[in-house]
């Protein structure tokens, strides 16, 4: 697990957007897993900027969102489909046919969840999954106690999550208690994972996820088992990490990797030149 600590939430968004854009440039038919909530907003603003000013092309990109509230239509301002449309999709050249957000209005829940999993497989799997983290350490809506092998399904949200989500609903009675969500197993099948967090409110969850034991009590800790996860946090969210010095040490020394490899390539080329006479 790579841990990148930056000063501000704005920088968290920029670093995450740079990683996503690099993946999209390398593979035009990139399959991108997306998250909602307040944390990814800066990442989306930066991706939109890269599209408008730098021509970042979404025309062949396919997206899969993590979750959706049960019962909300796509047109509801608090639905995650609406959120994605307002904050990313309508600003870039994505083909609407390539957008996948779980439906909040389903009759056959099991059938829908199985079909969603199949669609991810048919798309070739997710190349990069962007994640936020809940105060209780959830990823997507995998609340504490969710199986670390879980797949897309219906989940009951915890009281804490319902309270956190209530800030954006006018009527507290309207806040959904259920969501359709990718499972932890679905998330960790992605080839690369980028988890972002801002602020001291997330510090304990980040500590549990990065330095705590792997446990279903903090579903984000399952990312410790993933071979390619990058955690990008601001100073507030990093404030409870105990191995901070080591993460900074890695950052400072990583800059040398490029120089070491470059030196080796030059040496190798000199040797080959010698062989050729
Ligand atoms: P937030 O939500 O970005 O609004 O804090 C994150 C989450 O619950 O996954």
Provide a descriptive summary of the structure in words.
- The protein is globular.
- The model has no long low-confidence stretch (mean pLDDT 95).
- Helix 1 packs across helix 2.
- The strands form 2 sheets. It has a 7-stranded parallel β-sheet.
- Strand 2, helix 2 (41-54) and strand 3 (62-65) form a beta-alpha-beta unit.
- The chain starts with a strand and ends with a helix.
- It has helices spanning 9-26, 41-54, 80-87, 109-122, 159-166, 184-188, 203-211, 244-275; strands spanning 2-6, 31-34, 62-65, 67-69, 99-100, 128-131, 153-156, 178-181, 192-197, 229-234.
- It is α/β, with parallel strands linked by helices.
- It has 2 domains: 2-242, Rossmann fold, CATH 3.40.50.1360; 253-277.
- The chain contains 8 helices and 10 strands.
- Bound molecules: 2-phosphoglycolic acid.
Sequence-ordered SSE layout with sheet pairings:
Blueprint: E1 2-6, H1 9-26, E2 31-34, H2 41-54, E3 62-65, E4 67-69, H3 80-87, E5 99-100, H4 109-122, E6 128-131, E7 153-156, H5 159-166, E8 178-181, H6 184-188, E9 192-197, H7 203-211, E10 229-234, H8 244-275
Parallel strand pairs: 1-10, 2-3, 2-6, 3-5, 6-9, 9-10
Antiparallel strand pairs: 4-8, 7-8
This protein binds 2-phosphoglycolic acid.
């Amino acid at each position: 697990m790579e841990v990148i600590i930056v000063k501000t939430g704005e920088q968290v968004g920029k670093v995450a957007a740079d990683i996503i854009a690099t993946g999209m440039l390398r593979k035009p038919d990139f399959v991108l897993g997306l998250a909602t909530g307040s944390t990814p907003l800066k990442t989306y603003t930066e991706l939109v900027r890269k599209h408008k000013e730098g021509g970042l092309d979404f025309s062949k990109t396919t997206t899969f969102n993590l979750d959706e509230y049960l019962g909300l239509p796509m047109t509801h301002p608090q639905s995650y489909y609406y959120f994605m449309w307002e904050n990313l999709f309508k600003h870039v050249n994505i083909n609407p046919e390539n957008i996948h957000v779980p439906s909040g209005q389903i009759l056959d829940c099991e059938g829908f969840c199985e079909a969603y999993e199949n669609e991810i497989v048919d798309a070739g799997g997710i190349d990069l999954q962007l994640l936020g983290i809940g105060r209780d350490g959830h990823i997507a809506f995998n609340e504490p106690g969710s199986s670390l092998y879980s797949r897309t399904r219906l989940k009951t949200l915890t009281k804490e999550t319902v309270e956190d989500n209530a800030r954006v609903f006018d009527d507290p009675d309207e806040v959904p208690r259920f969501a359709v969500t990718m499972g932890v197993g679905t998330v960790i099948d992605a080839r690369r994972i980028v988890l972002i967090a801002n602020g001291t409110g997330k510090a304990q969850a980040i500590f549990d996820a990065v330095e705590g034991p792997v446990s279903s009590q903090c579903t984000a800790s399952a990312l410790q088992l993933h071979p390619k996860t990058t955690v990008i946090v601001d100073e507030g969210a990093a404030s409870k990490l105990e191995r901070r010095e080591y993460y900074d040490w890695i950052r400072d020394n990583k800059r040398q990797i490029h120089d070491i490899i470059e030196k080796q390539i030059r040496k190798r080329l000199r040797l080959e030149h010698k062989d050729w006479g």
